[in-house]
């Protein structure tokens, strides 16, 4: 009994000490010959699974170009909204091309590249409910995806008396809206387009929350890798390849607030 | 070496405790209601009319052969289609009761079937009423026999309740997920959440052991 407990404790300590947190350098990735990229696969059109079950979408196309640019093979690791930063910080992926919105809170934990994509988010709900301003959310239920940018945005503007329901993924939040469990959701323009296709006219945009820029994220202290990624982004913005990807997946040119280099 | 930082977790300890309290309430209510469902279904299955037995069989098999996650999605996202709209915590409670009821039915049925026919006849011969026979000759020894299986299923119910955050119920796991998403201190948050679940399970076990000593120890004190 004592032995077992001691052995378990030793094992636990060893596991804790061995937890990897080394940020990979471009040279390490190149000598390894492959790059592990964390990507959402439940966030169309940025991250999806194609008909053969392989990750596809805007993020996958950007990740493929990046891997080509680094001259290594691409290994996509599917992640979810809540677990993507833990995946990066625990070293299970080298970088994230996971539609990660650039926010000050996240920038404290990870380092962001220049934006490679952007989306606008808004409160979107039942047409016959008046939610034209944040104050009017009092007494209503709003669904958001836990840990998402719209979660922080809605939480910041919602008055006391508004009920915010947090779901684990976008699909559940949208399902809650469609099934009438919530009256509105905080959601991106891309998903709004998809909802309009299945339920035209039932909902409309109430008010805008923010425009969000998405960056490629690396663990803190990966300056060399980040410099290489930024050079890569500048190149594909200049030669129109990123614009092509945007046209392919979103049916519109790359928005100015993304293409501008700051 | 990972640098632990528990400060943001302890600063938000009240949120975790509110979540833990919801987990306790949800679990305790689901245990109590689920036990009643189990006893009723087990009785229907062992001594009810044939159509009722089939109905209970269908319920037990349907629940035991489908994932809890799907069941809770069905209750929360599916029922509004036919006009039944439950708030997340009520839907969570209903899902836990329905789920536990199926497992509990089988456990209690096993207990009832362990009672020898002669024992019931002896009870009747001693002049006990039907209700007395049911209470003292069938149910009490049956529950006593399956008590360990029943309590481990109760603990399992409490642990399974961590799934209910998927329909935005506000239990301990949801509080942990919320805190993790704000602090990004996933290791610290889940270490503390794990500790709270462990403490809850140990606490429930202690209560179950006390109930066993008080109610199921022979010779009976009353």
TrEMBL record, chain A:
GO terms for molecular function: ligand-gated monoatomic ion channel activity. Residues 1-23 form the signal peptide. Keywords: Signal. The keyword Membrane does not apply. Residues 34-253 form the Solute-binding protein family 3/N-terminal domain. Residues 34-252 form the Ionotropic glutamate receptor C-terminal domain. It comes from the Bacteria. It holds the Pfam family SBP_bac_3. InterPro entries: Iontro_rcpt_C (IPR001320), Solute-binding_3/MltF_N (IPR001638), TAT_signal (IPR006311). GO terms for cellular component: membrane. The keyword DNA repair does not apply. This is Transporter substrate-binding domain-containing protein.
TrEMBL record, chain B:
InterPro entries: AA_ABC_transptr_permease_3TM (IPR010065), ArtM/GltK/GlnP/TcyL/YhdX-like (IPR043429), MetI-like (IPR000515), MetI-like_sf (IPR035906). Keywords: Cell membrane, Membrane, Transmembrane, Transmembrane helix, Transport. It is found in: Cell inner membrane; Cell membrane. It is a multi-pass membrane protein. GO terms for biological process: amino acid transport. The keyword Zinc-finger does not apply. This is Amino acid ABC transporter permease. It comes from Amaricoccus solimangrovi.
């Amino acid at each position: 009994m004592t032995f077992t407990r001691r052995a378990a404790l030793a094992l636990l300590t060893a596991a804790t000490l061995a937890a990897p947190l080394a940020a990979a350098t471009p040279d390490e990735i190149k000598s390894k010959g492959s790059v592990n990229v964390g990507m959402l696969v439940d966030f169309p059109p940025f991250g999806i699974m194609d008909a053969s079950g392989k990750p596809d979408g805007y993020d996958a196309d950007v990740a493929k170009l990046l891997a080509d640019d680094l001259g290594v093979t691409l290994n996509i690791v599917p992640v979810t909204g809540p677990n993507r930063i833990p995946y990066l910080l625990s070293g299970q992926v080298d970088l994230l091309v996971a539609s990660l919105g650039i926010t000050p809170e996240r920038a404290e934990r990870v380092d962001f590249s220049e934006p490679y994509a952007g989306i606008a988010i808004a409160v979107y709900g039942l047409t016959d409910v008046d939610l034209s301003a944040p104050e009017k959310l009092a007494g209503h239920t709003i669904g958001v995806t836990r840990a998402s940018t719209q979660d922080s945005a809605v939480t910041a503007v919602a008055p006391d008396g508004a009920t915010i329901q947090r779901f684990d993924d976008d699909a559940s939040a949208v399902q809650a809206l469609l099934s009438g469990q919530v009256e509105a959701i905080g959601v991106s323009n891309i998903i709004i387009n998809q909802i309009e296709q299945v339920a035209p006219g039932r909902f409309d945009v109430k008010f805008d929350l923010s425009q969000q820029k998405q960056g490629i994220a690396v663990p803190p202290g990966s300056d060399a890798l980040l410099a290489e990624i930024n050079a890569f982004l500048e190149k594909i913005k200049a030669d129109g390849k990123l614009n092509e990807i945007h046209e392919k997946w979103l049916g519109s040119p790359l928005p100015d607030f993304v293409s501008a280099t700051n | 070496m990972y640098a632990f930082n528990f400060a943001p977790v302890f600063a938000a300890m009240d949120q975790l405790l509110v979540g833990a309290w919801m987990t306790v309430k949800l679990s305790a209510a689901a245990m109590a209601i689920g036990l009643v469902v189990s006893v009723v279904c087990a009785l229907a299955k062992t001594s009810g009319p044939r159509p009722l037995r089939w109905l209970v069989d269908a319920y037990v098999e349907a629940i035991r052969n489908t994932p809890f996650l799907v069941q809770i999605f069905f209750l929360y996202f599916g029922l509004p289609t036919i006009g039944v709209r439950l708030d997340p915590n009520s839907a969570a409670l209903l899902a836990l009761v329905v789920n536990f009821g199926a497992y509990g039915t089988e456990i209690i049925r096993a207990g009832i079937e362990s009672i020898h026919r002669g024992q019931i006849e002896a009870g009747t011969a001693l002049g006990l009423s039907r209700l007395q026979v049911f209470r003292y000759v069938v149910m009490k020894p049956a529950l006593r026999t399956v008590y360990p299986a029943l309590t481990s299923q109760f603990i399992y119910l409490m642990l399974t309740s961590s799934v209910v955050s998927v329909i935005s119920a506000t239990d301990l796991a949801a509080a942990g997920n919320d805190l993790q998403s704000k602090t990004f201190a996933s290791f610290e948050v889940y270490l503390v959440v794990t500790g709270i679940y462990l403490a809850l399970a140990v606490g429930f076990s202690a209560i179950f052991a006390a109930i066993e000593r008080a109610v199921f120890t022979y010779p009976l004190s009353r």
